Amino acid sequence: MEFTKWQGCGNDFVLIDCRERELADYGAFAKKVSDRHFGIGADGVLVVLDSNRADYRMRIFNTDGSEAEMCGNGIRCFARYLRDHGVTDRDKFTVETGAGILVPEIVRQDGAITGVRVDMGEPVLAADEVPVTGYGSGRAVDVPIEVAGSDWRMTAVSMGNPHCVVFVDDLASVPIERIGHLFETQARFPKKTNTEFVQVLDRTHLRMRVWERGAAITLACGTGSCATLVAAVLTGRSERAADIILDGGTLHNEWAADNHLYMTGPAVEVFSGTVEV
């Protein structure tokens, strides 16, 4: 099967176009090709499919074979693939995801593509819809949580997938490698969670590192960057538009007046090839 390898802020993906040939087990395929020693190497697999609800459909599979509802960096790469490989001749189109129908738009400067802007939809703040237990249908904003024997404060946000945003004074001192999995599997999150650790640099610049559900530490998380901005605004830490500085690059996000999150960032094809399935 032909594939292309993509990265958005260092969050990297193997993309396969399955509109004409579907695989029997996408999860097993993702586990195989995502392995960085015995496979192609990636944070996950993006699958291009036809849709009867939107122009195209995107499925996302993590390195552990589980399926994610949505991936912000992934949808930018997905959009660039569609445009660059002639699947569409439009710069704006709709994509069906597990988090609903989203709208990516190719960004150009002097005619050249410089990135992708995505309408990521509205954040979900009702705790039982994130989901996080213990707060009913109310919001879990700046609330206590115990992880690894320590007390933390978190804000729960869903961008179609669950996020636990934790603000810290010194990001470099947080042992994400040790505690990330413990946040992911904390009992309050029945579907597990992505966790963003965030240091506020100023009101328009937020430094974020992420432990992704099903993928561990990655260089970037697009939905996580959106959840981070929402949490920062709700707790009075930032303006409604800010740069989210990740290990792999920077995303510019805006929580607009229409309550939608708009994320703008790069998407780059790294190489292409074929792989046995």
Automatic annotation (TrEMBL):
Its EC number is 5.1.1.7. InterPro entries: DAP_epimerase_AS (IPR018510), DAP_epimerase_DapF (IPR001653). The record marks H163, E212 as: Could be important to modulate the pK values of the two catalytic cysteine residues. It catalyses: (2S,6S)-2,6-diaminopimelate = meso-2,6-diaminopimelate. It is found in: Cytoplasm. The active site is at C71, C221. It comes from the Bacteria. The keyword Isomerase applies. Coiled coil: none annotated. The keyword Membrane does not apply. Its main location: cytoplasm. Gene3D superfamilies: Diaminopimelate Epimerase, Chain A, domain 1 (3.10.310.10). SUPFAM superfamilies: Diaminopimelate epimerase-like. Keywords: Amino-acid biosynthesis, Cytoplasm, Isomerase, Lysine biosynthesis. Substrate binds at N11, N62, G72, N73, N161, N194, E212, R213, G222, T223. One of its GO terms (cellular component) is cytosol. GO terms for biological process: lysine biosynthetic process via diaminopimelate. One of its GO terms (molecular function) is diaminopimelate epimerase activity. Pathway: Amino-acid biosynthesis; L-lysine biosynthesis via DAP pathway; DL-2,6-diaminopimelate from LL-2,6-diaminopimelate: step 1/1. Homodimer. Catalyzes the stereoinversion of LL-2,6-diaminopimelate (L,L-DAP) to meso-diaminopimelate (meso-DAP), a precursor of L-lysine and an essential component of the bacterial peptidoglycan. Belongs to the diaminopimelate epimerase family. This is Diaminopimelate epimerase. The gene is dapF.
